[in-house]
Amino acid sequence: MIVEEKTIGNTIIKIDDSCVQTDIDTILKNLERIASQGLAKQAAEKKTG
Length: 49
What we know:
Helices cover 57% and strands 27% of the residues. It is of the alpha+beta class. It has one domain. Strands 1-2 form a two-stranded antiparallel ribbon.
């Protein structure tokens, strides 16, 4: 059963209740960090290009 759906950038993450909550939190933090780095890189490329 899907408990929560999160969208980060173009990625939709479906979290089900069989997962361990701490793992979900870690994964989401990592994805948010990766997404924000990607956005910062895109912004830098737009400024220089």
